[in-house]
Amino acid sequence: MDDAAERTGYRRSAGSPRGQARRLELLASVTDDLAANGLVDFSLRRAAKAAGTTHKVLLYHFASAEDLLAQAVFALRERRIANALAAMADGGGQHTLAGRVGVAWRTLRDEEPGLRRVLDQAVGLTMYDPERYAELGRGSTLQYLELLVSFCPQRWSADRKREVAQLVLATLRGFVVHRLTSDDPGGAEAGFAALARALEREEAVGD
C-alpha cells in the first residue's frame, strides 16, 4: 500500500466507531503518562511510547502534537473538576457560594502532586509561549468558569454569575502561585478566608 492510500485509510477509519474508540484509548494512555511524568519534555515520540504505538499513528488520530497535548490537559482538568464535585458530594453538599468555593479550594490545595504539577506546567507553557500554547490557557479558563458559574445562586443574572466566577477564578489562581513561590504557607489560607467573607457578603446582597 502506498503512503497516500495508507493515510486515506487511516483517516477514514479514524472517524468510525472503532476509530473513535481507538482514539480515546490512545488519549487515555497519553493523559496517564502526563499525570505521572509531567509535560516538560513532552513530545510525540514520548506520547507514542506511552501509548504503545508510533508517532505517525498518533498524527492520524490527532491534528498535531499541540492538539494531542491540549486534549490530554483538558482531560486532566476534567479529573480535577470531578475531584472537587466528588468532595462536595462526600461532604453532604454545600448550599452557599462560599461553601462550594471552599470545597473546590481545599480539593485544589490537597490534590495529588502529579496532577497539580502537570496543570501548573500547562499554565507555565501558556505564559512562556502564548502563540503556540494559547489554547491551553483558553481551555483552562472556559472549563473552570463553567464550574464556578454553576456554584452561583440560581437567582443571579448570567452577567452577575460570570463576573463573580471571574473574580473567584483569578483569585484562586493567585493563591496557587503564592503557594508555589512564597515561604509563607499560611498566606494563601488567610487570603482565602478573606475571599470567603467577601463571597458571603456578595451572596447576601439582593438582586
Mind sketching the topology for me?
Blueprint: H1 3-14, H2 17-37, H3 44-51, H4 55-61, H5 65-90, H6 97-110, H7 113-128, H8 130-151, H9 158-181, H10 185-204
Describe it for me?
The chain is mainly alpha-helical and 207 residues long. The protein folds into 2 domains: 62 residues, no CATH class; 143 residues, Tetracycline Repressor, domain 2, CATH 1.10.357. The protein is built from 10 helices and no strands. Helix 2 packs across helix 3 and helix 5 crosses helix 6. The radius of gyration is 20 Å and the shape is elongated.
Radius of gyration: 20 Å
Main sheet specs: none
CATH architecture title of the largest domain: Orthogonal Bundle
Strand percentage lies at under 5%
Order of helices and strands: HHHHHHHHHH
Total discrete domains = 2
InterPro entries: Homeodomain-like_sf, HTH_TetR
Organism: Amycolatopsis rhabdoformis
DNA-binding region: 43-62
Keywords: DNA-binding
